[in-house]
Design brief:
heterodimer; A: alpha+beta; 11-stranded mixed β-sheet; 35% helix; disordered C terminus; B: 5-stranded antiparallel β-sheet; 1 helix; elongated
Chain lengths: 465, 122
């Protein structure tokens, strides 16, 4: 998932409030009005609040088992330092499992987008263990789930490659003829296989280190290609290769023939250097096609679920683990009206293409409460009307927070109406008017609090990608 | 250039090209006018090259094109195996492969890999 840098400019109107409320308003920050609809990052690491320097990503069951057994022994003793992220789809054979449910040309449900994570950590006395999963079973905004789109990309790829192969046929033939004759020369010189492989490297491998270093060498000096200059460079490299293979004498004996070979190598080197014109524009094409697809299908159905649970053990054993906390988040988005509603009308067509509703449910509950971590539950809806990069937004969320230890208990509703514009790729400008209505701690219902706020940040509040 | 040594003049030689871990790929495998093999979208392809004595001093070369249309980098397994009477006589993995033996193809991009081999009687 791409991180979006959101330029958030929230404008809140102000109104009259009581002195007490003004005090409260002074302590408000942008986040008090902010409804984050980004899918929360619930992993075993985030739930334990750790950032492992390396996360093991096993590719097989054996690797997974080995990764875990290093931290949990047969007796059930736990050690800190486990950090594993495992996607079953990458382990099991893709051909044998039923990883996708397809309907016509669209992938409707994907088991392959399931990722699990496990982690252990410790503090002065306890070992903590957490497990979590992220699952995106439905994503109709993803062009890779659309067979027609994938087929069009495949056709493009093969047509470009086929064209390239035909275009370069004369060169292939010339290269082959040269390699045959060069080999005969090397045969006469009785050059061993290992050295021969190195000598041929510049014309064998398009992306070889030697070819790239040759390119870099001449590009950096700004030398205009001169056949003799390049050839002399290759000659010196060959000399060094012969010497490093203890064949310096052989090089001296066959110097004239090697000079001729170097000139031929140079001709191929020239070709490779100018070969950029033959490179495909696959990269540009695919990004353009993805952008077009995203603009057309930005509001299609998608569902993401993530959940995690952490445990605490005072004795550092599996048997002693006690639930510490759990977190769940479910987010889904789809067009505001169904396919069959007002079918055939321009209203249906407009709303199917220009509206989206995002629903999100999030909760985090602590079983061993402390004074700074509140239990929380929020249920929100976000309605968008417009285009992929230019739309109006309507948001509301019910929020409930509590803490048994501090007797803190708060519930209320936040809401806002605004507009958002993508000013450049992944950069958004947002205007909104909003407010909130919360009960205070004594249960007295206060008037909605309004404020004037603005902020710049890197929040990712948009659903998906 | 990889040197492939065969043992028996009369035995048959074939090549198996395997590409795993990516959806879009295409290869061409050539030698003189005799072989002009290409394949796409198959898990592994096996091709008869002929009787060993006819391959002596042959130079074969191949080009492999890989396209990654996904949003994540992909690691691709590429192996070419030559078999003489169904016994492996040589195996090739690209010099572009990392320590895990796999070639990295970045998201939304394509790469081309090329190499050659020479057949010699051992």
């Amino acid at each position: 998932m791409k991180n979006k840098l959101l330029i958030c400019f929230v404008v809140m109107c102000s109104s009259l409030n009581s002195l007490a409320q003004e005090k409260k308003q002074d302590s408000l920050e942008i986040r008090d009005f902010y409804m984050d609809f980004a899918v929360p990052d619930i992993t075993a690491f985030s739930i334990l609040n750790i950032e492992p320097t390396s996360i093991s990503k096993p590719g097989s069951i054996k690797e997974l088992a080995l990764g875990i057994t290093n931290f949990v022994n047969e007796k059930g003793d736990l050690r800190a330092g486990l950090a594993v992220e495992w996607a079953p789809f990458k382990t099991f054979n893709k051909k044998t499992g039923n990883w996708e449910n397809k309907s016509k040309n669209q992938t409707k449900f994907e088991w392959k987008n399931l990722t699990t994570s496990l982690a252990t950590t410790n503090d002065s006395t306890n070992v903590k263990f957490a497990g979590a999963f992220r699952f995106s079973p439905i994503d109709q905004t993803n062009p890779l789930n659309d067979k027609i789109w994938v087929d069009s990309i495949s056709n493009y790829f093969y047509s470009v490659i086929n064209q390239k192969i035909i275009q370069e046929e004369p060169f292939d033939a010339a290269r082959h003829a040269f390699m045959m004759s060069a080999n005969k020369t090397f045969d006469r010189m009785e050059i061993p296989d290992s050295l021969r492989e190195k000598l041929f490297m510049p014309i064998d491998a398009f992306n070889s280190n030697r070819l790239n270093s040759l390119k870099a060498k001449y590009e950096s000096t700004g030398v205009i290609f001169d056949r003799k200059v390049v050839s002399d460079g290759i000659f010196e490299e060959m000399k060094a290769l012969f010497a490093s293979n203890k064949l310096g004498g052989k090089f001296e004996e066959n110097q004239e023939e090697i000079e001729q070979l170097c000139l031929s190598f140079t001709d191929f080197f020239y070709y490779y250097h100018s070969r950029t014109s033959f490179q495909t524009d696959f990269n540009l094409h695919i990004l353009k096609m993805k952008e077009e697809y995203k603009q057309k299908n930005w509001n299609k159905w998608a569902l993401q679920i993530s959940a995690g649970e952490s445990f605490n053990s005072e004795k550092a054993t599996l048997n002693d683990l006690k639930v510490d906390c759990y977190a769940i988040a479910i987010t889904t988005g789809f067009p505001l009206i169904g396919e069959k509603w007002f079918k055939g009308t321009s209203f249906n067509s407009f709303m199917r293409n220009h509206s989206q509703i995002i629903l999100q449910l999030k909760t985090q509950q602590y079983f061993t409460p402390n004074s700074v971590q509140n239990n929380s539950l929020s249920a929100g809806a976000r309605v968008l009307l417009g285009n992929y990069d230019n739309r109006f937004s309507f948001e509301t969320a019910y929020i409930y927070q509590s803490n048994d230890l501090t007797d803190f208990n708060q519930k209320g509703i936040r809401y806002s109406v605004g507009a958002e514009i993508e000013i450049m790729d992944n950069y958004w400008l947002e205007f909104a008017i909003g407010g909130q209505n919360f009960e205070d701690m004594t249960g007295v219902n206060i008037l909605p609090t309004f404020a004037f706020r603005h902020s710049f940040g890197n929040e990712n509040r948009f659903f998906k990608k | 250039m990889k040197t492939i040594r065969f043992n028996n003049q009369e035995s048959s030689v074939k090549v198996t090209i395997e590409i795993n871990g990516i959806e879009l790929w295409r290869y061409t495998y050539k030698a003189d006018k005799r072989f002009d093999i290409s394949a796409e979208l198959k898990k592994a392809s096996s091709h008869e090259l002929g009787i060993a004595k006819n391959l002596e001093d042959d130079i074969h070369y191949w080009r492999i094109f890989l396209g990654n249309h996904s949003d994540v980098d992909k690691k691709v397994n590429i192996t070419i195996t030559w078999l003489e009477s169904n016994n492996e006589i040589a195996k090739w993995i690209p010099c572009e492969a990392g320590p895990d033996g796999k070639v990295l193809v970045k998201a939304n991009s394509d790469i081309e890999i090329s190499d050659s081999s020479r057949f010699v009687k051992s």
